[in-house]
Specification:
This protein has four helices and four strands. A four-stranded mixed β-sheet has the order 2-1-3-4, covered by helices on one side. Strand 1, helix 1 and strand 2 form a beta-alpha-beta unit. The protein is elongated. The two termini are about 15 Å apart.
């Protein structure tokens, strides 16, 4: 399980195609680690039209990427994956960051072992 949850301000010039490009690169990177089965990698994005950053300058933008992981991977494996994901994330928004104030943030969370249910037939469709 690697779930990517992206929130970003609407002034960063993103559209469906650019977000799908980022998601594609993140999925490829996750699969390449050997830690995450393809069938469990998911992404979703939320464009935020209501936001205020720092002094309220409407040119400022933000993007936040959260990665949720199932429990059981070593801290070293998580650190290596996180570094890879953060690099891709920063590269994706590099052009916007070069032209305006952009706050990029990233966090990776390992979910506590809790009661969890899911049903997934994606593997049957691959």
């Amino acid at each position: 399980m690697a779930h990517f949850v992206l929130e970003y301000s609407d002034n960063l010039g993103q559209n469906s195609a650019t977000i799908q490009t980022l998601f594609s690169r993140l999925h490829e990177a996750a699969e390449a680690t050997g830690l995450f089965p393809l069938k469990g990698i998911r992404s979703r994005g939320y464009c935020c039209s209501q936001h205020r950053i720092a002094d309220g300058n409407p040119e400022h933008g933000f993007a936040h990427l959260e990665v949720k992981l199932g429990a059981g991977r070593s801290i070293e494996d998580r650190q290596a994956a996180a570094a890879s994901f953060f690099t891709l994330f920063c590269e994706h928004f590099a052009e916007q960051s070069a032209r305006r104030g952009v706050a990029l943030s990233f966090e990776m969370r390992e979910l506590e072992p809790v009661l969890k249910y899911n049903s997934n037939n994606i593997e049957d469709c691959l």
